Amino acid sequence: MQARVTVILVARNGAAYLGRTLAAVAAQTRRPDAIVAVDAGSADSSADSLAASAPTQLVTTRAQPFGSAVERALEVGPPPQSEDEWLWLLAHDNAPEPNALAELLAAVEISPSVAIAGPKLMRLDQPDVIAEFGETMTRYGSSALLVDGELDQAQHDVQDDALGVAANGMLVRRSVFSALGGFDPGLPSIDAALDFSIRARLAGYRVALVPGAKVSSAGPAETFGRRSVSGSRRARIARGAQLHRRLVYSPAAALPLHWLSLVPLAFFRAIGQILAKRPGSVGGEFGAAFASAFTGGVLGARRRIRRTRRVGWGAIAPLRMSPRDVRERRLQAREAANNAATTSAAPMEPVAGFVAHGGLWMVVLAAVIAAIALGPILSAQSLVGGGLLPLSGTPGELWSHVGYGWREIGGGFVGASDPFAYVLAVLGSITFWSPSFGVVLLYLLALPLSALGAWFAARRVSSRPWLPAIAALLWTLAPSLLSSLGGGHLGAVIAHLLLPWLVLAALGAPRSWAAAATSALLLAAIGASAPILVPALLVAWFAWLVSRPAAVLRLIAIPVPLAALFAPLVIQQIQRGNPLGLLAEPGVPVSGAETSAWQLALGSAAPGLDGWTGAASALSLPGAGAAIVVAALLLPVAALALLALFVPGSRRSIPSLVLALMGFATAVIGSRIDVAVTGASVASIWPGAALSLFWLGLIGAVLVALDAVGRAAIPLAVLASVTTVILAIPLLGAQYLPNPTVREGDGRILPAVVAAEADDHPAVGTLVLTPNAGGSLIAQLERGAGATLDDQSTLGSTATSLPRSGRSLADLAGNLASQSGLDTKKELAKFSIGFVVLTPADGHREVHQRASEALDGNPVLAAVGSTSSGLLWRVNEPGIATTAGQPSNVDSAWGRVVLIGQGIVFGLTLLLGIPTARRRRRTTVSGSTATAPATTFEEEDDNG
């Protein structure tokens, strides 16, 4: 007797495919006996198309998965009419070839033990490519396709046995389908057919592959009823299916362990997803874990298996994929992805080699220049002067100053650290045996590191192989860098070193999660070192985001680490009504004369035109001579930057020139904002970092111009390089002038006697009195061996009013420095002051003399003598220099929240930034034919 076949055709928003599928079913050489059409909640004309085909029965349901729709069709459809009845399951996109049903029936007729037969699914858009042919799972339960994405050359036609087949096109005995309970409701799409096939195998039936039967497919099971499914959603569905099957298939004794491990495993897998540059899959890991743990359905599925199982799990072991095959599959997939990415990657890497085209030699040249220019500090262990102080003695002390806690400035207060404290902690931890030496090392390596960063960044945006060397020279000798080094502005130096790397990372960020994460870390470090740059850099980030809408997921979160660093400080400054204080330069406030706009336009961050005013005076040049010389030396760079607007490809120069304009505007505005106080003077924001941004934009435009001017490029580049070298000469020689701002330190600020006392009593206070103009004194209270750079806080330097402790300290200083007759013993004890230092007069001799006499006459004090820091007195009363412990950055709930929050943000960003993909081999071309820049960061095929 001929087998009876009922087609169950399920459609959901598949009107575009239904016509072809219905025609293909009607054209079968072996006509089905009945057709039950199911419209599963379509929003298009699918229901009308199904009705027009005059099926045996039309079923309309709400939107639901394919398996549930099949169940509904069997519930309301015609009852079984024979024992030998088969169901042919088709979706709206499954158009079978004319002999497909006949081939399937032939396969099951000759093998009575076969209860499920699967056709060869072919891609709808590529009919000669196999979409899927057989399913299996690994030793650890991960599902896998036996064949997918291969050109059909009959190479797999010898296969006739498999662990599972796809639901689409499946021919299944109706009695078996009913006995097994159909598809598992806990598996709505991915792995539903595999699970059903496994249960059939465990019930004693076979699952066969029928290579002669071909059915088209427009996509995998998870795309049923959807136009597309994102990679992250697909990963979440697949992980949920794997976890569900793990709970269903596991032995009863292991079930509690598997259930308890769901969330911990999700945490570790989330870290793995970040390392694999798939952050979009992180949420899916936790979503799948919680859904598997709490949505139910596992116990019912386990009961169904227990009720129908006739053979043990060992019976299906030979059909699982072996570990060797798994490794081979992964290797093939990786190679295919790399080949596809290499083929589709537009950019070709110029042949500019780091050694062959001057990169290494520019770094060596910069190192030689640095060794000569910084000769007086080559043997230094610490640096002082300008904005510099030694760092704390151990990395532990450095890290204790980050976050939210006690700030030992003035009378002390509890507050947020400057974000720069993190930068100093990292810098000092590099030379952990002597943290202050980290600053010295950075100074000595500043020029070669500048050359290194500029060379790689320039290679990314230029096609001529020798241009990166020119960019490296211009960036290394930038007046903003040299003046920041000479003035002790460490934050501006660090920002200058990192800006080229930020450009390099940002250019790769639209294609690479690692580059995006690196951009985020660099932006945070630059913003922490030079807060004045934050507004301009955020504008640049937003413009980059808007211009790359396809990469919005990668680019949108770049400012998050920066926001995490600044958030506690932002809250406090806003609460104090001083939001402009956020722009203050971190470190020791440095006062100075305001720099005019025209001097800033000439690249000078401070009055004096970067040393040329003094040089012109020494050469007896006219008053305007220095400005004329500097303008003439800058003219080649400025002219080339403007020329970039009028050469072929001038559009490439616009971002650079806009960046330069923002840098100049930032320098002008910032130099006129007085937010910090140092003694009786105000300190405006150092414009050096903003001028570095200005100079960066100019160099970018210069590269565009030199790329386009043909044979004139070499002489123009040489001219710009020579004039830049000449321009830098006064700044390079600044360290050899009398009384340079930055000088070698001995690792301490206060006298050795105080440092020795601080070893036993770290909280000992020292009142430092500095004579000032107008008969006044500047009073500073320092703890232990003296203030360090990581002690500094912009909350203290930008305070809009003197706190109560500050007023009390001022009163105490006034009474000590004058013969008032007031007993100062109580106030000294209140501040735990053990020593008093009176610094040298420096032109204020009368003030110094009066204060010295008053201190000598105070019975509470005993003169120690003259020290390198000035005159020193010791407080007579023993036990004064003791104080109760103050809250550290982990002693308060808010401090712990800040550290944990910032740690999570930076931990995840670091994981995402770690390169894990193997670098692809790229085609190289000569500099004369290269038309596109290098891609330095790896492009990734990810799910995020």
Tag the structure with descriptive keywords.
about 950 residues; alpha/beta; Spore Coat Polysaccharide Biosynthesis Protein SpsA, Chain A; 4 domains; nine-stranded mixed beta sheet; five-stranded mixed beta sheet; 24 strands; about 15% strand; elongated
Question: Quick gist of this model?
Answer:
With 944 residues, the chain is α/β, with parallel strands linked by helices. The protein is built from 34 helices and 24 strands. This is Glycosyltransferase family 2 protein.
Written overview of the protein:
It is elongated and about 125 Å long. The strands form 7 sheets. Strands 1, 2, 3, 4, 5, 6, 9, 10 and 11 form a 9-stranded mixed β-sheet that branches. A 5-stranded mixed β-sheet has the order 20-19-21-23-22, with helices on both faces. Strands 7-8 form a two-stranded antiparallel sheet. The protein is built from 34 helices and 24 strands. It has 4 domains: 4-223, Spore Coat Polysaccharide Biosynthesis Protein SpsA, Chain A, CATH 3.90.550; 231-342, no CATH class; 359-743 and 903-913, no CATH class; 748-875, no CATH class. Mean pLDDT is 88; it is low at 343-350, 880-884 and 920-939. Helix 17 packs antiparallel against helix 27 (688-708) and helix 26 packs antiparallel against helix 27. With 944 residues, the protein is an alpha/beta fold.
